[in-house]
Amino acid sequence: EKLDQGLEKSKSNFFNKLGKAVAGKSKVDDDVLDDLEEVLISSDVGVSTTIKIIRRIEDRVAKDKYLGTEELNVILREEIAALLSETEEAEKNNQPELGHPYVIMVVGVNGVGKTTTIGKLAYQFKKQGKKVVLGAADTFRAAAIEQLEIWSQRVDVPIVKQKMGSDPASVAFDTLQSAVKLNADVVLIDTAGRLHNKINLMNELTKVKRVMQKVVPNAPHEVLLVLDGSTGQNAFEQAKQFSAATEVTSLAITKLDGTAKGGVVIGISDQLQVPVKYIGVGEGIEDLQDFNKIEFVDSFFN
Ligand code: GDP
């Protein structure tokens, strides 16, 4: 229900436009397909993914010779679900066999909701009875360290930090050492997301990883990229740039409440081939949900 509310704007946007595109038509013809293309693009699905969806529907029209507009909904759902990828069950639960402590390196540009997502995740893990440690490796901004500290107090989990300007890799190293000592289950490492210098970003993330591996051999077990869903095509660009700088293994897409751009989830998931693990649907501590593609698609169409 929260998901439905969260996606209210995306849903009414998409569903209403789709309804208009097929109004008064009984079969899917070129006009309907043109309108559908516009609906997808204006819902921020992205051009390449839109073209892919339209082609698939054209193929089905060609194969069956006739496609009723009522069936279009069903087919569109299937095609969209096929393009979305969600996280495997094992990884969803951060099972101990994947790593103990299970280390999540969180990356993303400032302002996308990175700190909030880390706080919400820490809260969820703690509620599951897991021991969590936070690492403030975004040492570039004093505010980033302070914000993370506020979350650590709010959720009541330990944080490892150094002063602003210190080496992020050193903070990450300290964090993992503390986590091992505390026998922690999950470690969330915040990192700086300065995209204006791609080589620096790449070097920094590579170094953070390398240094963490001195403490926990397979760390990080997950590189979670946080993207602001309300920025539409900007989120796309960031996703591409971060994937070029480091191997991103999962996505959190925030601020899907209050935006009509929820379609961006479809395009990013398809283009990046990285599973969407979480979606942010509000500013509150409980407003982070596991991404489930069937629920997501349903919330768009129902
Ligand atoms: P950071 O700079 O990436 O760490 O961003 P913050 O975590 O500080 O978040 C920036 C702003 O976005 C804050 O005002 C958050 O409350 C807000 N925010 C984060 N996630 C969500 C979300 O899912 N929905 C909404 N509406 N706001 C969010």
TrEMBL record:
Record's catalysed reaction(s): GTP + H2O = GDP + phosphate + H(+)
Pfam families: SRP54 (PF00448), SRP54_N (PF02881)
Superkingdom of source: Bacteria
Gene3D superfamilies: P-loop containing nucleotide triphosphate hydrolases (3.40.50.300), Signal recognition particle SRP54, nucleotide-binding domain (1.20.120.140)
EC primary class: hydrolase
Entry keyword Cell wall biogenesis/degradation: no
Record's keyword annotation contains Metal-binding: no
Entries under HAMAP family matching the protein: FtsY (MF_00920)
Oligomeric and partner information: Part of the signal recognition particle protein translocation system, which is composed of SRP and FtsY.
Designated name of the protein: Signal recognition particle receptor FtsY
